[in-house]
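USER:
I would value a second opinion on how I read folds in token form. Give me a protein, with the fold worked out from its sequence. Write it directly below this note and I will take it from there.

ASSISTANT:
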Amino acid sequence: MRVSTPWFVAGVGGLFFLLVMMFYAKNSSLSQYLTSNLDISSPEIRGAFNEDRKQVVFMQQFQPQQINQNRIAQFDYKKAMKELIDRNTAADDKTLVTMIRNYYIEQPSTEPYHLDFPDRLEYSNGQTPFIDSRLNYIEGGFYVECGGLNGEKGSNTFFFEKVRKWNGLLIEADPTNYAALKSKHRKAFSVNACLSPRSTPAKLTFNKAFNRGRIVHDKDAQDWIRKQHIASDPVEIECFPFYSFMLALNRTTIDFFSLDVEGDELNVLKTIPFDKLDIKMLAVEYVHETGGHNQLQRYMESKGYDTLLKMQRDDGGVNDLIFRKKGLKH
């Protein structure tokens, strides 16, 4: 068999190099050098995430908050709400707020969780650990998540409930998703409604599509559904301003607001009186916004927020901007 001279020389050289490396690994400090520089506890490796955790990272039991409700069985609250909607009632109207509290918001479950993945602590796509660290791992906070989907899959708030003992509000417009959400027995207030894209309550058409459902209230929404090749599955749903929900729960401080409504994020944010509510951090989906992430970012920064992170996943399943209130300290 004939072997070309260049290949023979290369082979001999490679073998010689391998023998030298084996010798040094055994007889010098090379192995110690490699070990020390690959130590994952090294500050150089950890970079911006070198904070020491001061809080637990396992499930904790807690007693969720309740609200006082006064429901009158004979009262036709749907008819009364229609009248308020027809009058374009203001978000802070006392009658509107009282009706939301008494007839729309449901109390946290007191039953054990009923989950597909009961041993899991973190259900988000990476948003939760980042936000947890930027809020200094606080316990006993308050969150709002819209849409709540089925209460488990991809939840940006479940960690805060299970581990940090936070109370919260889950908002989900799709009746099918909401039934699934209720079956999980989350320790949070919940409501089968949507966040209004206006500063007044409204009754709008919602097109059901699991995690791609959205309200259909203008031509942009209709065009989006058509371009996404989403089947028509409409249902009429009541929608309320974010501020109305917070007044109904007597809440002016929200530690984390997760907003994913498939295209109306900016419209919803524009209804929020940021001078009356203290929202510390937000995760907002941007990919379906007509103006893209730049328009959303400019608006939030005009309201006193820093844009900390733009999150994307290769398959397009995650497209969030994460905001934190300027000057926030814990």
In short: The two ends are 75 Å apart (CA to CA). The mean pLDDT is 84. The longest helix spans residues 5-27. The longest strand covers residues 278-285.
